[in-house]
Design goal:
Elements (H helix, E strand, L loop, with lengths): L2 E6 L6 H16 L3 E6 L23 H10 L3 E5 H6 L11 E4 L1 H8 L5 E3 L1
Length: 119
C-alpha cells in the first residue's frame, strides 16, 4: 500500500477547493492508498462538527458527506494545532477521523517521498 497526502487550506472561504480536495482524498483512499488530509489555515474549521454541513458545490456530493465517507474508509485527517488554536476552536469537538497535530506529524508522513497535492 502506498501513501498519499492532500493539503487543504480552505473551507467556506473557497468551497470549490474544499470539496475537490475531499473528492481527490476519497479517490486515493479508494485506491488503497494510506491517505491523509492535512487541514491548515482556514481549512481547520472543517474539523469542527457541523461546519461543513452547508457546503454543497454543484456537481459534487455535499462536503460533509465526502468527509464522512473519507473517515469511514479509514482516511486520516490531521489538523494543524497552531491554526486551530489561533481560531479559538474547541479541541474536544472534532469530526470523525480528525486529530490535532503539530507540523512534525505531517513531516513524518511525507518524509519518505509521499506524493502530495494542495488546495
Amino acid at each position: 500500500m502506498g501513501k498519499f497526502c492532500v493539503s487543504l487550506t480552505c473551507a467556506k472561504d473557497n468551497p470549490d477547493k474544499a470539496t475537490v480536495a475531499f473528492v481527490v482524498a476519497n479517490a486515493a483512499v479508494g485506491s488503497e492508498q494510506e491517505t491523509l488530509v492535512f487541514l491548515s489555515i482556514e481549512g481547520v474549521r472543517l474539523a469542527t462538527p457541523g461546519y461543513a454541513d452547508a457546503i454543497k458545490e454543484e456537481g459534487f456530493a455535499p462536503l460533509a458527506e465526502l468527509m464522512a465517507k473519507f473517515a469511514a474508509a479509514g482516511g486520516k485527517i490531521y489538523v494543524c494545532s497552531p491554526c486551530f488554536k489561533k481560531r479559538g476552536l474547541d479541541e474536544t469537538k472534532l469530526v470523525p477521523g480528525a486529530t490535532i497535530v503539530g507540523g512534525a506529524k505531517l513531516v513524518e508522513f511525507l518524509a519518505g517521498g509521499t506524493p502530495s497535492v494542495s488546495y
